[in-house]
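Office hours follow-up: a student asked to see two folded examples consecutively, so here they are.
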Amino acid sequence: MNTHPYLRAYLAGIFVPTLVLPLILANFIVVRLVLAVPVPFERFIIFPMAVVPSLFGLWNMLYLWFHRRSHLSIGVHGAILPFLGAPIGALIAHQLGILQIGGHGVTYFQLCVVPYALIAVVFLAAVVVYYLVWKYIVGFLNRILGIA
């Protein structure tokens, strides 16, 4: 089964965000429409829904390419992704006017102020979650598809 290993790596990579993002969207819809929270979530969620699955798939393809040259574990490889995705996402959000950077924290949608300490804790939690997702789910799918 050596045919199209990068295509199989891409498909294994997009599996998790393709399952999780619709659940996040459903939660946003409930918050926006049922609870009537006046925050324009739709501006925030559409871009990640388009980019994150492709990013995961391309990141898994990159893992396949790197793994043949080095022996970095897939969990560590996945844990590196937030270090690239978070700054790029913050830069795009800042350029679109969704995020303003202040002295004590960041402001989303000119409504919600998030302190830097909370951002650091959430970021570290994201790194741990990415490590676990990549080690156990994406790694499992890579083994099933015969590319690991």
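And the second, which I mentioned at the end of office hours:
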Amino acid sequence: MRILFAASEAVPFAASGGLADVVGSLPRAISAKGHSCAVVMPLYSSITEDMRRQYGLKFVTNITVDVSWRKQYCGIFTAEYSGMRYYFIDNEYYFGRMGMYGFYDDCERFVFFDRAVLEMLRSLDFRPDIIHCNDWQTALIPVYYNVYYKYQQGYDGIKTAFTIHNIEYQGKFGKEVLDELMGIPQYNAGLVEYDGFVNMLKGAIETADQIVTVSPSYAWEILDPWYAHGLDRILVMKNYKLKGILNGIDTENYDPSDDEAIAAPFSADDLSGKAKCRAALHKELGLEMTDEPVIGIVTRFVKHKGIDLIRCVFEDIVSKGVKFAVLGSGEKIYEDFFAEMAARYPSRVSVTLGFVPELSHRIYAGADMFLMPSASEPCGLAQLIAMRYGTIPIVRETGGLRDTVRDNGGAGGNGFTFKTYNADDMKDAVKRAYSAFRRKSEWEALVKRAMLCDYSWSASADEYIAMYEKMLTDHDEPCMDYE
């Protein structure tokens, strides 16, 4: 099979979150199993001249792309990274800016990108069987394919898959963009209209052959209004083509036995290096070196990450002697809270605002526990990375956290969980983890179980391949799987 992944970001070229990690890893895992994959993304100005030379960026051709009544220049470039072919859509007006998102004309920018992805296929020697789109920035690709390209010569038989990485971000705009930017005929407007707006995500749900979420639990959670951010009605109607596949992590980038960012290597067979990483983290962050556990937090400071729960009981937990190593940034109210806690408890609370990749590795390696009390979590990568480094997750049972972390109170436990979105329940999970931590032999066995969990992309790639094969052979029954 030939699969083209379309996304607004991908490592190592441009990244703002988990989407880039997925698009940088999943195609490689599928390619390793004998299929041909490529990635297409915008050519941002953040892809520097040094990076372009490093990865051998080459000009392929230029074409003209329709953006409603406009005709816009589009350059097509290509490069190789880790054996993967990447294509880049170039237009200085749309992508030659500082930053990737948050501009007043984001709708127009990604309308252009989505049309360009389809138009560029005429100029490439890579003809995909499946175009796999990701998040609202690529949601119009299946819409445009069905409206304009499906019956054109050379485009017949292409299937489209669409992954919802986070349903909160939908690409909602006023109806005026239909004519002014999208160029979608009025008789097709219903594909993207929803609740009085143009909703790009809704358009993909309507027209893609397969809808995918990044964990099995998230696939059925988003049928519930509490999780769906208004899209539950259309998702319930289209649930026959909804499937959840758990994300993996890049086990080469996150490998405690071969990670230059941490103080000492270690593995499930030899945990001595983790003790050294723990000691080094205390020293680096100025924490008091005691036998009490260190809880790591590496996250964005936003409400749905459960920061409100942490605020409610933070000082209660610290008063028990527990220490915190916090790394992240986000809403100012939460940044100010953590800064205040660090000032109030300097020997027990370390807070680093921003994101420092090397420090995140050292927190994963040197902390004892990892706290993730999310209100919602489509998949979550941090808990998977933490387990890879023998740091025990404490999570709320939602989305991918439910699918990956099993409570230590049951058979094969690899962490600690709580169900309700409640600060006292979270504190109780921390208390149970603290009690287990003091029983050293039990804790060491728990650490080894967590480290031996396989959350590599290999298993997920097998599920994607099976889904693609079913899409190409079964025209009447899309894949459907919540478990």
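Two things to take away from it. Residues 408 and 415 are 6 Å apart (CA to CA). The two ends are 25 Å apart (CA to CA).
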